[in-house]
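To make this tangible, this section ends with a sequence with its structure tokens:
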Amino acid sequence: MLDVSVDAVALATRATGAPGVVSDVWRPLPVRTGRADVVLCVFAPRNPAEFARVLRPHGSLVVVTPRAAHLAQLRAQGRLIGMQPDKLAHLDESLAEEFALTARRALEYDVMMTAEQQADLGAMGPSGHHSNIGGTRAPEYGVLDAETDAAAVTVAVDVSVYRRA
């Protein structure tokens, strides 16, 4: 497990027992050249040259990106910043020099989230760095379940698999 977040690495290593390293994707990764079978990049910046360096010759890069419907309920409330409309085209173009797309799958489902969980989610990532985004407002979009104070929130992502070119 490698992440820029100390908390993310700590959670992953506790959950899996695998070793973890805190590192910045824009610096050389602390992985030997050609040693990784898979690099997984979830909602994070990508360094194609560095990913290609650490992957074995037939290694895979798996990239998870949000779709337009991802967390739409929170976006409609103004709790998240907007998304780039041509995300997949930009992704493919940014990786084309080092990688070739081999598969892509769209996933979409709803999860029930409490108002507190929604506020926490709105405060994560880039949205949390904007003072008028996120916060702890109660949900105004979606139907709250009276017993759990929860509302359905859509998870919609594309999972793209690339091989070294």
Q: What stands out?
A: The domain at 31-164 is CATH 3.40.50.150 (Rossmann fold). Residues 124 and 134 are 8 Å apart (CA to CA).
